[in-house]
Amino acid sequence: MSAGRLSFDVVSASWMRYADAAQIAKPSIAYPVALESRSVLLEPLSLKHLDDFCAEGLDPELWRWTMISVREAAGMRSYIEKALEDARAGTAAPFAIVARSTGHAVGSTRYGNIASEHRRLEIGWTWLSRAWQRTPFNTETKYLLLRHAFEALGCIRVEFKADVLNLRSREALRRIGAVEEGIFRHHLITDTGRIRDTVYYSIIDRDWPEVKKLLEAQIARPWRDHP
User: What pTM value is reported for the model?
Assistant: First the structure.
């Protein structure tokens, strides 16, 4: 895809590669699409995940550094519905993070801020039940999304953002090989009214081979199937 570019077809909700600006190639990867690793299944988000999300995701600590806070079932339903609305608009591709050992959804993540003309997207909006934190789940999730972005979708840049105060998230991004690019001061206002500074990170296509090796080495380490 060195000479092509990437597009997200809003009507059919499928990624398509362009051989050139004049000719649309046959869709190569579709969303909804499921991505699977040893421990994690990323499946397209839907309202069928609502009960699992309510069981796992109403912990206030999970939303400490996010733009919004989800504290009750109605809020979680709205959260899912907004993600699905963005997917229909072609600006996001949201996933449920499912533990293969249990079949239950224990978190969520997505592609967002999709800029097809620049072959760029963001990975974020990620939360994971505290019971499954400090396991390889986050690493496997990021690996699946990055591999799909660079190797299937032909991206040349993947972005990440973190609250400047969220030291755990910032360390996790550095650990997977993301490069810190700078701080956007007074970047966002959260739903609590706090003015947030945001740190930008990225992985670009020429970084990916080394990042891939790093992530595969981390994933290969032995671990138990359940926290």
Answer: 0.85
